[in-house]
Amino acid sequence: KNKKNKNNKEKENNYQNFRAPQCRIEPDVLKNKKDLYSSLFYFTEPESLLVSSDNAFYCGKCNEKREKIQGNDEENEKPKSVLTNATKQILFSELPKVLVFHFKRLQTRKKIEDFVEFPEVFDMSPFKWIKSKDEKEEPILYELFSVIVHHGSRSGGHYISYSKNGNEWFYISDGHVEKSTRSDVLKSQAYMLFYEKKVN
């Protein structure tokens, strides 16, 4: 998570573990195309933090500088914390061997039934945090190996999965297992996606 003060260009990087990125797919979010890339671009889009809208950023470095200038001995009152305008952006610093995405189909009053396109091979490089100018942006490829699908409504239903073994796909529902096809997998109404990092 990267936060940048608009006034003095100070940057603060905060690190947080993700179990599974929550991918929003509401019609007002993905207006043009419903796919995994569009949802992740929305997830990582820079967000403005403005004093005027009550979500301003507390800049620790800015306040430290202010304290040094004004002094903070016992005779002086400690300077008040200053909030500032900033931009916030979520990017991935380190990427795991297995990457899981969760489409938020059940977060609204009514389950979102829309089809969301997802690829068999996915490139994560557009969402990777470049730590330095010397670091080159190269493809970071992941290959799909499992999909979870939710059948039913927001109040209840049944989960099935598609899983890959070697070059073959299988449909799994409780104790029932049968062969499936790549085409059936890629046109399924995915609830969760599981990708494994490809070895170069």
Give the tags:
200 residues; mainly beta; 8-stranded mixed beta sheet; 4-stranded antiparallel beta sheet; 3 helices
Description:
The protein has helices at residues 36-43, 60-70, 182-186, and strands at 2-5, 11-13, 22-23, 47-49, 57-58, 83-84, 86-89, 98-103, 121-123, 141-153, 156-165, 168-173, 176-180, 190-197. With 200 residues, the protein is mostly beta strands.
The helicity comes to: 10-25%
Determine the strand fraction and express it as a percent band.
Answer: 35-45%
H/E element order = EEEHEEHEEEEEEEEHE
Radius of gyration: 22 Å
Count the DSSP helices: 3
Mean pLDDT equals 78
Task: Give the uncertain stretches in residue-range form.
Answer: none
Structural category is: mainly beta
Largest sheet: 8 strands, mixed
C-alpha end-to-end distance: 27 Å
Number of distinct beta strands: 14
Shape from CA axes?
A: globular
